[in-house]
Design goal:
Blueprint lengths: L7 H10 E11 L9 E11 L6 E4 L3 E7 L2 E2 L7 E4 L5 E10 L8 E5 L6 E5 L22 E8 L3 E4 L5 E4 L3 E5 L13 E4 L2 E7 L2 E7 L4 H25 L8 E7 L5 E2 L4 E5 L10 H16 L8 E2 L5 H19 L5 H17 L14 H4 L6 H17 L1 H15 L3 E2 L1 H12 L4 H8 L5 E8 L2 E6 L6 E11 L2 E12 L3 E4 L8 E4 L7 E3 L6 H7 L6 H16 L5 H14 L3 H18 L2 H18 L6 H11 L3 H11 L3 H13 L5 H10 L5 H11 L3 H13 L8 H8 L5 H14 L8 H10 L8 H11 L4 H21 L4
Parallel strand pairs: 1-10, 16-17, 17-19, 20-21, 22-28
Antiparallel strand pairs: 1-2, 2-7, 3-6, 4-5, 4-7, 8-9, 10-13, 11-14, 12-13, 15-16, 18-19, 22-23, 23-26, 24-25, 24-27
GO molecular function: alanyl aminopeptidase activity
Keywords: Aminopeptidase, Hydrolase, Metal-binding, Metalloprotease, Protease, Zinc
Family: Belongs to the peptidase M1 family.
Length: 811
C-alpha cells in the first residue's frame, strides 16, 4: 500500500472545514517485549463547519475497525480513511495496529544488546503520527491529547504532560496522562521501557532524565550538567520571550537507535549517543548544551506557537537553532557558542548555499514529502545566522520586545512568516518587508571585499547585497600578535559602502568581524597570502574563526589549495585559546588532509596535523582531544606506538587507534576481538564493526556493507562512524563495487522516514573510488528519488565534486 503525501491544498481545505476538539489515544505496548505490534485506539472529537461535507483522516497503520458517529467506515487506502456525511459535531474512533516497529516510520522498538531489554520510542516529525494512530496529521489542526498507555509491568512510560496516574493490571500497568495543551500531532510522544530515571526540582520545575538501564552510570555522571543546562535554559527563555514554560514537568528521554533529538512538548527525546561512554570532550559538552537548548527553544517556537504549514518550517528550526546559541552564550558557561556555530554549522551552510540544492529560507512547499527535504543547512545554520543578523539589524532590545509580543498574541495557535515580521516591525519601528524579501525569499550568499584608496576604505559587494549591518575590525601588530584597534559597524544598502572611523595604516582589516551577518568575504590580491599567515595571530576565537571560515570557503571554491588551507587551520589550531573550537578545527584540518588534498600531499598534511596533535597533548586540558586527533591522522609507526602508550586504560582511545591501524593495513583483528571482550559499553560491537570496516579486505568490506547498507543493523546514529571507516583512501579497487551499489540503492534510501533517509543518503555516499563522471550519474539518479533523498544527494554530490577538484581528480 502506498502512502499519499498530504498537499498544502488538501491541508488548507481540511483546516477550513473542520476543527479538532480533542484526541483520546489509547496505546497498548504489551505485545512488544516478544513481538513487533503496537495497538492503538484513537478517538477524535471534531466539528465540521459544513455539515454533510466530506474529508479524510490519516492512518497508515493497519486498520482493524473504524466508526464515525457510530457508523462503521469502509476501509481506506493510501494511508487515508474517507469520512463522508460529516455532522456538525463528530466522534471518530479508529482501532489500528502497527507491526513495522523495526524499520518503519513513527514508532521504533530497540533491543539493548547489553541485557536484552526492549525500549520503544515514537517520533512524528513531519507527519508520522498517523503511522501509529489515526489523526488529522497537519500542523494547524492543534488539539489537546489525552494518552492512556498500557505497558509491561516493569516499564516506565513517558509522555508530553507527565504525572500520569498508574494502575496495576494483571502483568501490566496502565498509565493515564492528563490532557496536553493544544498541540500539533507531530509534537506528541509516547516513550516506554525499563528506564533508569533521575529527577530534580529546579526553580519550580520538576525535571526528569531517562535512559536505558545499561547506561545508568553514564546518565548519573552527566545528570548534574544536564539539569544545570535545563534550569539555565528555562530561565533564559522565560525572560527573553516574556513567557515562562507553562508546564511544571519537563522530561528528557535518551533512547537507543534514535537519530538526533526531537522537541516533543514537555518530553524531549534524544539519541542516547549523546550520553558519551568516554569522558566527554569540551566540544561534546558544547554540542550537548546546544542541542538541549535547541529542543527547549522549540517549546515556544514549534509547540506553543506552531507554523501553519511547512513553508514556515524555518519559524521552528531556524529560531531554535538561533536561540540555542543565544542562550548558550548568555546563560551558560558555553560563551563561545557562536564561534562553534561558525566553524561547524555556518561553514556548512555557506557551502550548501552556493551549491545546486540551495533554496530560499522561506519557499512554497507543495506537500509534506517536499517539507522533509528542507530540514537542511539552509533552514538550520543559515536560518540561525540570518536571525542573528536580524537581531543586530533591529537591535536586541527591540528584538526581544517583538518576540514577547509574538508569543503573547499567538500562544497555542498557528502563524505564518507575516505574523512574525509584523511583530518585529511593530517593536523595532523598521519596515522589514525589504529585509524579508532579500533574506528569506532569496537564495544565495553575499560576498564582500575591501577597496583601499589612501586612507579611504570602501566595502564592496559582489552584486547587489541584502540590507544588513556588519562590522569591520582593524588590527595592528604587537610583536607576534595582532591587537584590535577599532571595530566599525556598517549598514549596507548599496554595492559600495564607505567605512569611516578606521585608524590609518591598520595591518589587518577583517570583514564581518564578530560574525554578525551571513556573508563570505575575500581578501584583495595583495593581502591574500597574508590572510593565511595572520589568521592564527588574531586575538579572539571569533576573529580567528571569521578568518578561518574565509580560508575554508576559498578551499571549497577552488581559490585556495588544500596545502594552503590545511596549514592555515593547523596554525590556528596551535594558537587557539578556546577549548570549544579545538575539536572543530582538528576535524577540518584532518578532513582537508584526508578528503581534499591531492594524493601526493595527503601524507605530509596528515603528518602536520599529527604533529600538532602531539604538541597539543602536552596540555592536560586538551590531551584527550589531541590524542583523538592523532588517532585519525597518525601516519607512522612511531605515532601509533606513542598513541597506544598515551592511551593507557582509555578504551575509547584504543578503539580509535585500532581503527587507524586497520585503515593503514595493520593486522588488528585479534586485538579488536580482545578489546571487545573487556569493553563495558553495550554498543562496543559497533566499534569492532568500525575496525572491520576500515580493513583493506574484500570479504570484510562485503560483510560490513551488508550490515550497514542492506540489513541496516547499524543504528542510525552510528552509520556515519562506520561509513567514514569504510570509505578510505588508497582502497579504490576494493571500494569501486560499492560506489555502484550506492547508486543502485538510491531509490530505496528514503525507507524508514526522514532522519534515516538523510543519514543514509549522506553518510553512504562514496568519498573515494569515483570521478567526475560518477558525480554526474549520482545527480541523474537523484532526479528519480523522493525529495528528501534528492536534496541530500545533490548537496553531498556537490561537496564531493569540490573535493575531487581540490585533489586534482576532475576539472
Amino acid at each position: 500500500m502506498g502512502i499519499r503525501s498530504l498537499t498544502r491544498t488538501e491541508a488548507e481545505r481540511r483546516a477550513a472545514l473542520i476543527a479538532v476538539e480533542r484526541y483520546d489515544v489509547d496505546v497498548d505496548l504489551t505485545a512488544l517485549p516478544d513481538g513487533p505490534e503496537v495497538r492503538s485506539v484513537s478517538t477524535v472529537a471534531f466539528t465540521c463547519r459544513e455539515p454533510g461535507a466530506e474529508t479524510f483522516v490519516d492512518c497508515a497503520a493497519r486498520v482493524l475497525s473504524a466508526t464515525l458517529n457510530g457508523v462503521e467506515l469502509a476501509p481506506g487506502e493510501d494511508g487515508r480513511i474517507p469520512l463522508h456525511g460529516l455532522a456538525g459535531h463528530n466522534v471518530l474512533r479508529v482501532e489500528s495496529v502497527q507491526a513495522n516497529t523495526t524499520s518503519g516510520e513513527g514508532v521504533h522498538k530497540a533491543t539493548d544488546p547489553a541485557d536484552g531489554e526492549v525500549y520503544v520510542w515514537m517520533s512524528f516529525e513531519p507527519d508520522e503520527a498517523h503511522f501509529v494512530w489515526a489523526c488529522f496529521d497537519q500542523p494547524d489542526l492543534k488539539a489537546p491529547h489525552a494518552f492512556t498507555v498500557t505497558a509491561p509491568a516493569t516499564w516506565t512510560v513517558t509522555g508530553n504532560s507527565g504525572d500520569a496516574r498508574v494502575e496495576e493490571l494483571d502483568g501490566a500497568r496502565r498509565w493515564t496522562f492528563p490532557d496536553t495543551p493544544p498541540l500539533s500531532t507531530y509534537n506528541t510522544v509516547v516513550n516506554a521501557g525499563p528506564f533508569h530515571e533521575v529527577r530534580r526540582e529546579a526553580d519550580g520545575h520538576n525535571l526528569g532524565l531517562y535512559a536505558r538501564r545499561s547506561l545508568a552510570e553514564v546518565l548519573e555522571r552527566d545528570a548534574d550538567e544536564i539539569f544545570t543546562l535545563t534550569r539555565q535554559g528555562l530561565a533564559f527563555y522565560a525572560e527573553a520571550f516574556a513567557m515562562p514554560f507553562p508546564q511544571r514537568r519537563y522530561d528528557q528521554v535518551f533512547v537507543p537507535e534514535f537519530g538526533g533529538a526531537m522537541e516533543n512538548y514537555g518530553c524531549v527525546t534524544w539519541s542516547d549517543a549523546f550520553l558519551q561512554r568516554a569522558a566527554p570532550t569540551p566540544a561534546e559538552h558544547g554540542l550537548l548544551a546546544r542541542v538541549l537548548l535547541h529542543e527547549m527553544a522549540h517549546m515556544w517556537f514549534g509547540n506553543i506557537v506552531t507554523m501553519r504549514w511547512w513553508d514556515d518550517l524555518w519559524l521552528n528550526e531556524a529560531f531554535a537553532e538561533f536561540a540555542c546559541h543565544w542562550a548558550a552564550e548568555r546563560a551558560t558557561r558555553h560563551t563561545d557558542a557562536w564561534t562553534s556555530h561558525l566553524m561547524i554549522g555556518k561553514i556548512r551552510a555557506y557551502l550548501a548555499d552556493q551549491g545546486p540544492a540551495t533554496h530560499p529560507i522561506h519557499q512554497p512547499i507543495h506537500d509534506v514529502a517536499q517539507a522533509a527535504s528542507i530540514f537542511d543547512s539552509i533552514t538550520y545554520p543559515k536560518g540561525a545566522s540570518v536571525l542573528q543578523q536580524l537581531k543586530t539589524y533591529v537591535g536586541e532590545e527591540q528584538f526581544r520586545a517583538g518576540m514577547a509580543g509574538y508569543f503573547a498574541r499567538h500562544a497555542w495557535g498557528n502563524t505564518t512568516l507575516q505574523d512574525l515580521i509584523d511583530s518585529l516591525s511593530e517593536a523595532s519601528g523598521r519596515d522589514l518587508d525589504t529585509w524579508r524579501t532579500a533574506w528569506l525569499a532569496t537564495a544565495g550568499t553575499d560576498r564582500f571585499s575591501l577597496e583601499l584608496d589612501g586612507d579611504s576604505v570602501t566595502l564592496v559587494a559582489a552584486g547587489s547585497p541584502r540590507p544588513q549591518v556588519l562590522a569591520v575590525g582593524a588590527y595592528a601588530r604587537n610583536g607576534d600578535a595582532l591587537e584590535r584597534r577599532a571595530l566599525v559597524r556598517v549598514e549596507v544598502t548599496e554595492p559600495r559602502t564607505a567605512v569611516t572611523g578606521l585608524p590609518p595604516a591598520a595591518d589587518v582589516l577583517l570583514i564581518n568581524d564578530d560574525d554578525l551577518t551571513f556573508a563570505t568575504s575575500r581578501p584583495d590580491p595583495t593581502t591574500r597570502d597574508a590572510l593565511f599567515r595572520t589568521a592564527a595571530r588574531l586575538p579572539t576565537a571569533i576573529s580567528r574563526g571569521v578568518a578561518a571560515a574565509t580560508v575554508w570557503d576559498m578551499l571549497t571554491t577552488g581559490e585556495a589549495t588544500a596545502a594552503e588551507a590545511g596549514r592555515c587551520l593547523t596554525s590556528v589550531l596551535a594558537a587557539e585559546t578556546s577549548d570549544a573550537v579545538i575539536e572543530p578545527y582538528l576535524t577540518l584540518a584532518a578532513n582537508i588532509a584526508e578528503l581534499w588534498a591531492p594524493p601526493a600531499d595527503r601524507v605530509a598534511l596528515s603528518a602536520e596535523v599529527a604533529a600538532a596533535c602531539r604538541s597539543l597533548a602536552a596540555d592536560p586540558g586538551r590531551r584527550q582531544v589531541a590524542l583523538r586527533g592523532l588517532a585519525r591522522t597518525a601516519t607512522t609507526a612511531d605515532d601509533l606506538g606513542w598513541l597506544r602508550q598515551q592511551a593507557g586504560d582509555d578504551v575509547d582511545l584504543h578503539w580509535r587507534a585500532l581503527i587507524r591501524e586497520a585503515e593503514l593495513g595493520g593486522d588488528v583483528t585479534a586485538e579488536s576481538d580482545l578489546l571487545l571482550t573487556r569493553d563495558p559499553d553495550p554498543d562496543a560491537w559497533l566499534r569492532a564493526l568500525t575496525v572491520r570496516a576500515a580493513l583493506p579486505d574484500a570479504a570484510t568490506k562485503a560483510e560490513v556493507w551488508q550490515q550497514m547498507a542492506v540489513d541496516r543493523t547499524v543504528p542510525v546514529n552510528s552509520v556515519g562512524l562506520v561509513a567514514a571507516a569504510f570509505w578510505r583512501p588508497d582502497q579504490d579497487e576494493l571500494l569501486a563495487p560499492y560506489a555502484e551499489r550506492y547508486l543502485e540503492a538510491v531509490p530505496k534510501l528514503h525507507q524508514g522516514g526522514m532522519i534515516l533517509a538523510m543519514s543514509y543518503t549522506q553518510r553512504l555516499f562514496p568519498l573515494h573510488a569515483i570521478d567526475a563522471t560518477y558525480i554526474e550519474r549520482a545527480r541523474r539518479a537523484s532526479q528519480e528519488a523522493v525529495p528528501v533523498v534528492r536534496t541530500t544527494l545533490l548537496e553531498r554530490s556537490d561537496e564531493v565534486s569540490r573535493m575531487l577538484r581540490a585533489r586534482g581528480g576532475s576539472a
